[in-house]
Write a structure and sequence with these properties.
binds ligand BES, about 500 residues, eight-stranded mixed sheet, 19 strands, single chain, alpha/beta, six-stranded mixed sheet, binds zinc ion, about 35% helix
């Protein structure tokens, strides 16, 4: 699918998208042949320009049927980047369902709504998202009909926004593909291969640490989680140095549990079949680093993914085990399903001690509780650093990926105390609640003195229903968020 800026006005399209604010202002930008039918639809009161509203009509022009999709953007005082992104994604999805080949988007009809660089960028990304499908395992695939999307716009930085949109959307789509692959295929070794491919594509160093070396490093908490699987664990390290004079190195740590059965604390069958999505944090890190490198951001970034599978076997770790983490802290493992934090603890220690990262950002499908707290559209963030929180909140607006801060509440911390080790990995049996916060507090034990941001995406990584910007399955949530955090930090 080709995305271009329209240069020559003609009627060579088969679907026209026209955005309208709630005041329903029609401008000269609307193609001549569409003016009368659009005006008639509005005068008849079929379309009001409300936020996210879609109205479809067809017209006969030059002997062929052309579809028109009116998309409402709502009241200008109440819109935000995400509402615009969703409204346009709905319009693209409608065109896809109509089997359009050439889509023209008359952006200039709602010029004053779409004059912000980040909005234009995201509206362009939406086209690629709406067209995304994961079809690798379907014997008969009806390919998408969309060949080209043309943007009719006079926005001065459009070419720049479009170029960035392509890179960012492709990177999120890469993350979706990694998540959607079934677990028998997407093993730790396979994820390492995928990361190496990204390394070659972007010309950055990707290093894989195999089990013997991880043992030597003392990454026993991480290795314990992977013990129950025949597929051996891998630590994936991706290095991008785009600001060599700067001593700051941002560590992006992604939870890479390729499959989370829960271990001996086995998950119920209803939640098992999506548990290959437990590496969505890793997928976001790989996607973000691809975008960071392609856009040549002025920043130093090291991605660390401790990839393994949480399975049951005669070798698997047992609740009651005591694990010596790479940091030296002993962990009483009282719940084999709270495995993500064990893998992250060692990945963070490795990033700080071996890769000398100066800031830590971890992203993980860590707790089911985050979905109870915030729903399935907002990720939870926890931090010890106000500046990182501000970056995350600003990046979240730009990325159209919502976040909400939860407190790193020290008063809850005692429930992670253990009577036989330094701490335990779950507060099972206690009544304090706050599962997401406790996950964060556990991870905080391993960030030493570093500024740290934790992003819990267990509610937002996966969609069980088709969305205008993503079909059922992995969303790639966090790719754009991480990319934009690093972009803001590099300014
Ligand atoms: N991978 C899960 C979290 C999860 C749940 C992700 C649902 C996606 C959808 C994580 O490893 C887990 O099992 N967490 C436990 C923690 C508890 C045992 C302290 C949970 O949320 O129940
Ligand atoms: Zn688990
Ligand atoms: Zn998990």
């Amino acid at each position: 699918m080709e995305l271009i800026k329209l240069t020559e006005k003609n009627s060579n399209y088969d679907a026209l998208i026209i955005p309208f604010g709630s005041e329903l202002e029609t401008t000269e930008c609307i193609p001549e042949e569409a003016k009368v039918p659009v005006k008639a639809a509005i005068e008849a009161g079929f379309f009001k320009g409300e936020d996210g509203e879609i109205y479809k009509l067809s017209m006969l022009a030059e002997g062929k049927i052309q579809n028109i999709v009116l998309v409402g953007l709502g009241n200008k005082d109440r819109i935000n980047n995400r509402s615009l992104f969703i409204a346009f994604s709905k319009a693209y999805s409608a065109c896809k369902k109509m089997k359009a080949r050439i889509i023209r988007v008359v952006l200039d009809n709602a010029k004053e709504y779409i004059e912000d660089y980040d909005v234009v960028e995201k509206i362009c990304e939406g086209t690629l998202f709406a067209d995304y499908e994961f079809n690798e395992y379907k014997s008969e695939v009806k390919p998408s009909t969309i060949e080209r999307v043309e943007f009719d716009t006079t926005y001065d930085r459009f070419d720049e926004a479009l170029a960035e949109a392509k890179v960012c959307a492709e990177s999120t789509i890469l993350a979706r593909d990694l998540i959607n692959q079934p677990p028998a295929f997407m093993t730790p070794a396979q994820l390492a291969e995928e990361a190496k491919n990204v390394g070659e594509e972007c010309n950055i160093e990707v290093m894989i640490i195999h089990k013997p070396e991880a043992e030597e490093l003392g990454m026993n908490a991480f290795l314990a989680v992977g013990k129950g699987s025949v597929n051996s664990p891998k630590v994936i390290v991706m290095k991008y140095f785009g600001d060599k004079d700067n001593e700051d190195v941002i560590g992006l740590i992604g939870k890479g549990v390729m499959y989370d059965s829960g271990g001996y604390c086995l998950k119920p069958s209803a939640s098992l079949h999506t548990m290959h999505g437990d590496m969505s944090g890793a997928a976001a890190v790989i996607g973000a680093i691809r975008a960071i490198a392609k856009m040549e951001l002025k920043a130093n970034v090291v991605g660390v993914i401790a990839a393994c599978e949480n399975r049951i076997s005669g070798e698997a770790y047992l609740p009651g085990d005591i694990l010596k983490s790479m940091s030296g802290k002993y962990i009483e493992m009282n719940n084999s399903d709270a495995e993500g934090r064990l893998t992250l603890a060692d990945a963070i220690t490795y990033a700080i001690r071996e890769q000398k990262v100066t800031k830590v950002i971890d992203i993980a499908t860590l707790t089911g509780a985050v979905k109870m707290a915030l729903g399935n559209k907002t990720a939870g963030i926890i931090s010890n650093d106000e500046e990182l929180v501000r970056f995350a909140q600003e990046a979240s607006e730009i990325a159209c990926e919502k976040v909400w801060r939860l407190p790193a509440d020290k008063e809850l911390r005692p429930v992670l105390n253990s009577s036989i080790a330094d701490l335990k990995n779950s507060a099972i049996g206690t009544t304090v609640g706050g599962g997401t916060i406790l996950g964060g507090l556990f991870i905080q034990e391993f960030v030493e003195d570093k500024p740290w941001l934790h992003i819990d995406i267990a509610g937002t990584n996966w969609t069980h229903e088709d969305l205008p910007y993503c079909p059922k399955g992995g969303i790639g949530f966090g790719t754009s968020l991480l990319y934009n955090i690093v972009k803001l930090m590099s300014k």
